[in-house]
Amino acid sequence: MMRSFLALLCLLSTWAHATTGPQQHPHIEVELITEYATWQPGSTQWIGVAMRPEHHWHTYWKNPGDSGLATQLTFTSNEPELSFGDIQWPTPERIVVSDITNFGYDGDSLLMVPVQVPLNISEQTLREGLTIQLSASWLVCKESCIPGNGEFELVMPLATAPSDELTEFANLFATTRQVVPVNQTELALRYDLALNDANQITFQLSAAGSDAANYDLFAADETLLAASSAPVWQKGTAPDGSRWWQANLQTSEYFYQLPTSTDIVLRIDDVDGVKGIAFDAKQATLPKLTFTASSDTVSNSEHSIIVLALMAFVGGMLLNLMPCVFPVLSLKALSLVKLSGKESHQARRHGYLYATGILLSLFVLGLALSGLKQAGNAIGWGFQLQDPWFLSILTLVMVLMAASLLGAFEVAGSWMSVGSERLSKGDDTASLLSGCLAVVVASPCMTPLMAPALGVALTLPFVSMLFILMALGLGLALPILVLTFWPALISKMPKPGPWLETFKQALAFPLLLTAIWLLWLLQQHDPNIVLLLLLLLLLVAFCWWLKTRNYPRLAAIVFAATIAVPGIWYLQPGAQESRLADVATPYSPEQLAQLLAANEPVFINMTADWCLTCKVNERVTFSDAQVSEAFSQHGVHYMVGDWTHRDEQISRYLDQFQHAGVPLYVLYNHEGQTQVLPQLLTPAGVIEQLDKTLAN
């Protein structure tokens, strides 16, 4: 019994020595762990640092991207001959906030390190075990970034006989090995400066047994590639007949020369999960590839062009049932009701024009997609909805069409007659425009059969892509074509009457719902644009009200003046030349005390190069000319504390406001009273706070 008790104590002691337990730090838990419970002299073992950030917080890869800092690990031991290898970094992911792109881990990660245990170990170490100390530093970010550091210790028992006793963390090590990039010898990766642009680097990946459509590319060298440049692969044939994938990526703003070789990681996302391939990419003079349609390209989707076209055709028909297309389809149906009882050839003409508008718009869209693809951009269906200006214009169109249906625009010959009034009247131009508008509003929608068809189409040459887009257009136009080619169906529709006006007004609400959805998309780009758009709609409503009150000239003057004055101010020489960065002074407690003693207002910006939110605020807010003008008008001294490298003075300042990290924005008024601003800033918010705090 006593022997069993002693054995249990020994086992518990072994497990206790395996890890000292997790340490809780701001927004992250960090723990030093090992795979095996006991180590043998002369063996290679694995230890790891488990990093468990809170939900939506992330840590960084060895190349952090536009901002951030890589985790640093420094090991020491009581055994001088014990050697530690390099960190085995898991395959990273892209983490994008605003226009800042980082590389790292959005969630738990394990940084594994190999340990070579020497064969000859002293008797004392064999008895007491190996003592391993770790000094670790990291950066964990969400909206703010908080640097952390910790000291860890691990005492590992040694056994002269082989042991396969695993710790509770063994599965974590096994899982991590599956996402650590493995060296690949079967595939080749080579690169050179692109011939068409000195600011791009061309990468070619051997196409043997690979599907580059699922590959992302990361360079360990921070000075090589721009973090925001993601690969768009094209498959081509070299003069010797070999097949290669090719992608052009932008060089980093810190780029100065091409290395002869560089470490590259390819991330592969497929049904089996995430995998990584590590390359020692070699600089080479690349052959010019011929990009042509081939059976290989089509076989990537395991569908022929005909099957893809049929899928797109059915997907186009289903689009008519989507909320984004229904308002326009309803407008066209309204015009067909008015055609009831008229000549059949007239109905067919409207069907032809509607279909022509759809096909013509898709042809133009195909040209745009092909041009962007040739330029090396990442493209997709609905790509134009990534442009705030396009979203703004489309929102205006939806609101004005709804207003017309509700009776706001009834004057014949008005400027809105080109839009919704003509659509509801059903003339030739309206039929063509309604087809174009159907494509515009359909672009954000995706039906089940459309997804695979368009996904493959966007990787094909222009002719094949266009064939699939035309099939999509025919499916979209089919319901109206059926109605116009079989006039008997139109005759069965209800006759025009009082109900028609109610129906027309009811159609305004799907349009307004679409406008609200577009505003939601727009605010994700910039909330300030939403505000400006709403003010513009208010201006249009006010001017239209003046016109209905028989003041058309006054309405034109008010509209022109309201639009022109901000434009003239914006175009004035030097209107945007002043920036806060030009007048910033480095933070120092002494200078801050002097300014406060003189009753001067001060704005403190605590920032760091690795801080994601700091960089966004600098690009969006602190580079805004109106913010700079507001600082100048109020006589605010702008002080910047750079915490890129740990600074005790800045750390003490952060502690005063109970902030563990940056950004921190503090505004002092004339009496030295403080106001802490939010971590996410907007130009309007900063200007409002200055006016409120420093008002005399």
Automatic annotation (TrEMBL):
**SUPFAM superfamilies according to UniProt:** Thioredoxin-like (SSF52833)
Domain Thiol:disulfide interchange protein DsbD N-terminal span(s) in chain numbering: 38-155
- Localization in the cell: Membrane
Question: Where does the UniProt annotation place the signal sequence?
Answer: 1-18
For this protein, the record's Gene3D superfamilies field holds: Glutaredoxin
Q: Does the keyword Mitochondrion apply?
A: no
Q: What is this protein called?
A: Thioredoxin family protein
Protein species of origin = Neiella holothuriorum
Q: What is the lineage of its organism?
A: Bacteria, Pseudomonadati, Pseudomonadota, Gammaproteobacteria, Alteromonadales
